[in-house]
From TrEMBL:
Bilayer topology: Multi-pass membrane protein
Organism taxonomic ancestry: Eukaryota, Fungi, Fungi incertae sedis, Mucoromycota, Mucoromycotina
Protein name: G-protein coupled receptors family 3 profile domain-containing protein
Main location: membrane
Superkingdom of the source species: Eukaryota
Amino acid sequence: MSLNHWIDDDDTTADGIHYFDKSNNFSFVVSRHNDTTFISPTMTEGLVELRIGVLLPFHQKDSEATKKLTLSGASAIRMAVAEINTQRMIPGAYITLIEKDSYPKEAEGQASITQAVYAAVSLIQKGVIGVIGDVSSSWTSLSALMTSTLQIPQCSFSAVATSLSDKTQYGYFFRTISTNLAYTDAALTFVLSQGWPMIGILYSDDDFGQQLSQNMIMKARTQGIKVTSYQTFYSDGPVSDVQTSVETLMATGSRIILLAAENDAQLTALTVAAHLGYINNDTVWITFGENTDALWNAVDRFNSVITRRINHVNIYNNTNGNNTYQWMTNVDPIEYAANSTAVLNTIAFNSTFAGGVFMFRYRLNLTGYAPYDEFMRKWAKLDPAMAAYSCMMAMAHGFNHVIQNSTNTNSTMKKLAAGQLGEYMTPSTFNTSFVGPEGPVLFDENGDTMKGNPVYIGSIIANDLHLISEPIYHDGTVKVPTGTPDQKLLTTSSTALTYAIMSVASFGILAAIATILLVLIYRKRETFKASRNLIAKNYRVYRIFNNIFITRTVVRDFQLLKVSGGILAFDAVILMIWLSTSEVQTVDVPVSSSAYYVGCDFHGPTNMVFVWILTVFAAMQLAFATFLAFKTRSVGKNYSKYSEYKQIGLSV
C-alpha cells in the first residue's frame, strides 16, 4: 500500500489498525491515544522498544509549502522506520514512532506557541529517546530547548536558523538540512584553494549578516586566513548609505570581499560596488545565493534612475511629509542608492559581472550517485523528503553505534530504551558514516550537516573542493588575482618621507665628523682629555679610588684603551663570524597595506646563537657599568675634578 495512506488522521481507535507494507514486506499497527499517533511493528516478541517522537504541524493549513514539507517529511520518516525494523538495523530492538501534532488547532500569537510547547511536553512524557521536528525554526527552538535540557537528541530536517547552532543552549540538537553557516565553509574552502592570504568582510546589519560574519571571522582565523577588515552596512534599511560603507571597506586595501547579506541588502551592495568601480580585475567578490536575474533587474533599475538624473528628471517626490516613515520603509534601496550618488555613470552589466563575482548556493542534483538513485527508486511513488529520511536513519545508526560499542549490550539497550543514556546523545554520537540519499551524513561541532554545496564551477562535499572548471575572473581569464592590494616600493627618490630621513641622517653624519675633527684639533684641552665612554670613565675613577697599591691618581689612556678596545673587539669578532656563517638576503618590509621598503635579513641555523651571545654580552656590560656607578657614587664629595659622577651614574 502507499505510505501516503498509512495513517488516517481522523482515526481515533485505541485498539489499533493493522497495515501491511508490500514494498518492505512489513506489517505494522497504527493506534491513536489522546491525539497522539503510535506506529509499531506487529512482530515485537523478544525485542526492546525504542520510542522516537515526531513533532510536526500536521493540521496546519495556512501554508501549502509547510503542508507539503510536513506530509512528505512524515512519509520519509515512516519509510525509514520500516527499513530499520525490517532490516534489524538495531539488533534486539524495534522502533515505535510516536507522532504529535504541534499545531492541532488554528491559533495565532501566544496561543500557537502554547500549543507547540504543550505538544513537545506531551511527547516527552511518552518516554521518547529521540525527537524529529519541528518544521519552523521558531517552534523547533522551543522544543529543542526542552529536549537539550533533558539530554534527548533532536533532529530537524527543515529548521535553518543559525541560532540553533548554539551548543550552549541546544547541546543535543542536530539537523540534516544545510544552514546559512554552511556557506562559510564553502566560501573559505574556495578562498584557500585559490591561495588568497587575506579577506575583507562586508556584512548587513541584520541577523543573517551578523551571524554569518561572526562565523566567518572565527573560522578564517583557525584556517590561517587574515581578515584585514570587516564593515557593516544597511543599518538603516532601504535608506542606508551603502556607498560610504563600501568605500570604507575598500579603503583598507581589501581585495577579496566576502559579502554576507541576502535579498535587497545583497543586491544593493553589489550594484553600488559595481557603480563605484570596485568590481574590477584586482578584486573578487564572494556572496551567497544565486540571484543573477534579480541582480540584472537591480542594475537595470539603478541605470534607469541615473539616466533620469542625467536628464534632470526628479526621481523621488515625497510629498507625503506626514508619513515619512512609511516612505522610508517602502522605498526601493536600489533607486535610493542611485538617487543619492554623486557619480552619474551607468553600469555595463555584461562587462562588469562577466567574472570575478562568485555566488554559492545549495543545490541538489546527484543523479548517478548510488545512494541517491536507490532512494529515488524506492520513493518513485511518494513525495520524497530526503532530509527527513536521513534524520531517522542517522538517529538509528547512532543508537546502534552506542549499543554495539558497549561492554554489555543488553544493559545498554535497556538504559537506552529508558532514556538513561542522555549524556552520550550529543550530535557527535550520530556521526556514524551513514551514507544517505544526499551524500554522507556528517555533523560538525554545531550539529549542522556538512554536505554538498554545488557552485557554478564545481562542488564542495564535506569541505572537500572539486572544481570541474577553472574560475573565471573579472578580466575574463583564469589568472588568479593576488588578493592583496598593489604595494609601492619606497626608494630613495620616491617619497617626501625618504628625503626627510636622508636629511636627518646626513646631518647626523656631518655632526659626527665635525665632532671628531674638533676633538683632534683641541685634544690637549682638559675637557677633551677627561672625556671617555661611560664604562671607561667610571673604570678610571674606580681604579683610582679602589686600589690600595696605587701611588697617584692617574690611569693612562693605554690602560683604558685595553678595556674599551677589548669590548669593541669582542663585538666586532662576533659580528664578523655571524656574517660569514649566514646568508644575507633582501626582504620586503611592509610599511602599510600599500607600501614597503627593501631591507636585509640574515638567514642561517646559527642566528639565534649569535643573538643570544650578543644579548648576554650587552647585559654583562650593563651590569658592570651599574657596579662601577655604585662604587663611585660618593667620589665627587671630596674631589671636584670628578664632580660629574652623578651624571655618569644616571646615564648608566
